[in-house]
Design a protein that fits this description.
Elements: E1 15-20, H1 31-39, E2 48-52, H2 53-59, E3 63-65, H3 73-80, H4 86-89, H5 91-101, H6 103-118, H7 124-128, H8 130-134, E4 136-137, E5 149-152, H9 157-168, E6 171-178, E7 182-188, H10 194-200, E8 215-220
Parallel strand pairs: 2-6
Antiparallel strand pairs: 1-8, 2-8, 3-5, 4-5, 6-7
Helix pairs in contact: 1-9, 3-5, 5-6
Length: about 230
């Protein structure tokens, strides 16, 4: 499949996002070999190659079958009253958050969230538990055979990105992006401007369905220095 460059409004002139299709990533995959083969002839030295955090985590075997988790009563009750965000609307995923931070912190986050909503403030729950929730992907929307797998955050994303950058000869970022116009850089090789990468990915060129494009090349074809890279 020939990748198609995407120009997102608000991006610096000369910067294009190129989604790159790969085969399904599997546990134990050599990411340097897989990504290198995918971006050959597309990425140039100086470009930023963005890899979806789910793909990195699956290659590291960091996922759990939902059937192996027994949600507590707290997880069952809270998930029934949650919004659309997969992590908290699925009792199995929410149980992993409870296991990580403790039931007391989760209950406190719920109470603070309720009082925040009464005062017109939204998102308090996610502010308190942000990192714990960000590290766990719910299974909704994950491609087979991982459609019933809860994917954890990738391990050591900064060192992984640095090793990949050295192997591939490009800059590398590992990013969690979604269709809600939000992107979070979890790891990056040296000199990558994390905030600039996040702004470039608010349109989520990776896609959130079955596109099977876990790689996006942020290609700089303009004049002057690359705005995604610091000196």
């Amino acid at each position: 499949m020939i990748p198609v460059a995407i120009r997102e409004s608000g991006l610096p002139e000369g910067l294009v996002a190129i989604p790159v299709r790969t085969r399904l990533i599997a546990p134990g995959d050599d990411l340097a070999a897989l990504v290198g083969a995918a971006i050959r002839g597309i990425a140039r030295p100086g470009d930023v190659v963005v890899i979806a955090e789910t793909g990195v985590a699956i290659a590291q075997s960091r996922f759990i079958a939902a059937e192996s988790i027994r949600p507590s009563r707290l997880a069952l009750v809270l998930s029934r009253h949650a919004g659309a965000l997969a992590t908290v609307s699925q009792p199995e995923s929410l149980q992993l958050v409870i296991d990580q931070v403790g039931a007391r912190k989760v209950v406190w986050a719920v109470i603070a969230h309720v009082f925040g909503r009464l005062r017109g403030r939204r998102g308090v729950f996610y502010e308190i538990l942000g990192e714990a929730i960000a590290a766990i992907d719910g299974y909704t929307g994950t491609l087979p055979p991982y459609e019933r797998a809860i994917v954890l955050g990738p391990a050591d994303p900064d060192p992984v990105a640095t090793v990949l950058a050295l192997a591939l000869g490009v800059h590398v970022a590992i990013v969690d992006a979604n269709d809600l116009r939000r992107a979070k850089t979890l790891g990056a090789s040296p000199h990558v401007d994390r905030d600039a990468v996040e702004r470039a990915l608010v349109g989520n060129p990776h896609g959130n369905g079955d596109e099977q494009t876990p790689i996006v090349v942020l290609a700089w074809r303009g004049t002057g220095p690359n705005p995604l890279v610091t000196p």
